[in-house]
Amino acid sequence: LPADKKAKGKASTLATLKYALRSVKQVKANEEYYQLLMSSESQPCSVNVPSYTMEQVEGITSEYIVKNADMFAVAVSLVSGKILYISNQVASIFHCKKDAFSDAKFVEFLAPHDVSVFHSCTTPYKLPPWSVCSRLDSFTQECMEEKSFFCRVSVGKHHENEIRYQPFRMTPYLVKVQEQQGTESQLCCLLLAERVHSGYEA
């Protein structure tokens, strides 16, 4: 159990068991994800996948999220699962430092039951290229809404010793991202995530 999650007495045992169960579920979900990737190798990925630098990713997503305080953008590597880019809005949405997402896998912030949902919905051959956004008409908008899915996200904030998750509607796109100049671009899932306001607990 990580040091920041340790407690005393009975609470410690319960916290350890909950953490172990969550870890097992995430490992199982990751295994299912890689099986999906293996089965999708014979499936053609979307053609004409655009490639961007980190600065370009920030530029192309900013116009979609700058006017919406409940929205953020994140690029997740489909090779390693790590976050390559995440927009500044996460700091105000989750009341944390942006660094909390540095060098981390995106699924680490998802509710355990949503990990497999995320993986199955971001299988490369299912994703449209980001270029569809540049010609977004009403028909394309409807198609993209069908591609979106829901996941609960948290940065580990505790409320009465429990992690509280916030529900988000995520619309995924397929892109290639060059993390550093001179390095090879990685196939990524670029997500536009919008917080869902609901009367129900996430």
Automatic annotation (TrEMBL):
GO cellular component terms, semicolon-separated: cytoplasm; nucleus
Period circadian protein homolog PER 1-3 bHLH-like domain span: 1-41
Key words, A-Z: Nucleus
Superkingdom of the source species: Eukaryota
Any one GO BP annotation for this protein: circadian regulation of gene expression
Nucleus keyword on record: yes
Domain Period circadian protein homolog 1-3 PAS-A: start-end pairs: 70-194
PANTHER family for this protein: PERIOD CIRCADIAN PROTEIN, PERIOD CIRCADIAN PROTEIN HOMOLOG 2
Protein name, UniProt field: Period circadian protein 2
Source species taxonomy: Eukaryota, Metazoa, Chordata, Craniata, Vertebrata
Gene this protein is translated from: per2
